[in-house]
């Protein structure tokens, strides 16, 4: 059930990244954020109820609320035309929590691949904090590209693998995931820099 929610997190991250890049209007993106945010609040609630007091199952489900609250927050703010600073500061909390969940994946649940994925999410929500919470507008394009490029490999791909029984996690796969993450972040920096440079090129009359 958690993998179903993760699949749609990939979709909303893609749309939100395109929103940061100016490709999708904020009010248009808000609707999907509300849908996915609602799903990511209902899913962990059901999982926790079904856990029957199993601490590990409750811990695994608890992280889903970080996404659910983020997307509900984004959807409401965009529809209502509110200021985004609150999302930014909540993203700071999410980023710190993501580092904790990464550590738990590495050392408690023996899932190093998801440890790397949690670290990717920690970076992403840190960027949301910088752009929305602190108003570092110069990072907006970079953040948009990071969001777009990480949306599929950190969400949709592991979700499909989990639903089809193909998900595997070991040290070597974690290293490979980390390398892919670094490459994608580097590509995001390249695309963002190129976009700013192209925007300064005068258009011939």
From TrEMBL:
The keyword Mitochondrion does not apply. Keywords: Cell membrane, Membrane, Transmembrane, Transmembrane helix, Transport. It is a multi-pass membrane protein. It is found in: Cell membrane. The chain crosses the membrane at residues 6-24, 31-51, 57-80, 87-107, 113-135, 142-161, 173-192. Pfam families: AmiS_UreI. It comes from the Bacteria. InterPro entries: AmiSUreI_transpt (IPR003211), AmiSUreI_transpt_sf (IPR038523). Belongs to the AmiS/UreI family. This is AmiS/UreI family transporter. It comes from Amycolatopsis minnesotensis.
